Amino acid sequence: MNGATHLLATDLDGTLVGDRNGLDELLGFYKNQEYEVSLIYITGRHFQSALSLIKEENLPVPEVLVTDVGTEIHVGLSLIKDADWEHRMLQHWQPEAIDRLAASFDGLKKQEIPVTNRCSYYAEDAKIVKKFEQQLVSAGIPHKLIYSGGRDLDILPSGSGKGAALEYIIDKFEAHDAKMLVAGDSGNDIEMLTLGLPSVIVGNAQPELLESPESPMIFRASKPCAAGIQEAWNHFHPR
Fold it and tell me: Do 147 and 138 form a contact (C-beta atoms < 8 A)?
């Protein structure tokens, strides 16, 4: 991805994926441009789940795949795990301690996912989430908490998240001068949508994004999913 001139960094579910016609139109639009658009997928899915979605939806294989809400980065044609980022994530990570503490809260139900680089729960009461975070802080457990959709609670290594992962990728591949668009639809996308880069909240976004502050760098699409991405691309990067 070194030397990329145009970049799309996008969430998958509900953003790039969710409207087949819009997706086909967006991919056709990019194919017909004089430039190549390098793809970065940034998803809450774990790695194998993301690969399955890419296959099911016949998506182009990205140059970078960020999974597990920004806690893993996979690069290149073979999507090899980025060792430097993994080392950074594991330095102060305490998943066992987080799970033990979560087990003491009746309002938290652990999500069964085949990874240890994040702790994920179902939580429908924001007050319980707040109390849990207070306990994490009191216990001195380094973490990043992301609550999205009024249900999904992710406890991540400190210094992680979709925004931090995207900044790392831009630095690693020296892509600061590329024309870029960042796209998302839910609360765990807020961090990457507010980096000051050209960004789009797609038209079908969840309430926590629709209620976020206005910014000239955040385009609010009227169309859903991939059609909203194309709408925003034309706004920020007109021919």
Answer: no
Indicate whether this model's pTM tops 0.85: yes
In this structure, what token pair is assigned to residue 120?
Answer: 């994920």
Share of the chain above pLDDT 70, in %: 100
pLDDT of residue 102: 97
Q: Is 91 helix (H, G, I), strand (E, B) or coil?
A: coil
Cα–Cα distance, 33 to 30 (Å, whole number): 5
Provide the 8-state DSSP code for 36. Answer: -
Question: Mind listing the pLDDT tens digit for each residue in 189-205?
Answer: 999 999 999 999 999 99
Please state whether beta strands 199-201 and 179-184 pair in parallel, antiparallel, or not at all (unpaired).
parallel
State how far the alpha carbon of 183 is from the alpha carbons of 105, 162, 170, 189, 232, in Å: 34, 11, 15, 8, 9
DSSP state of 198: -
Q: Which residues have C-beta within 8 Å of that of residue 199, sequence separation ≥ 6?
A: 181, 182, 183, 184, 192, 193, 217, 218, 219, 232
Would you state the pLDDT for residue 92? 93
How many Cα atoms sit within 13 Å of 7 on the Cβ side? 27
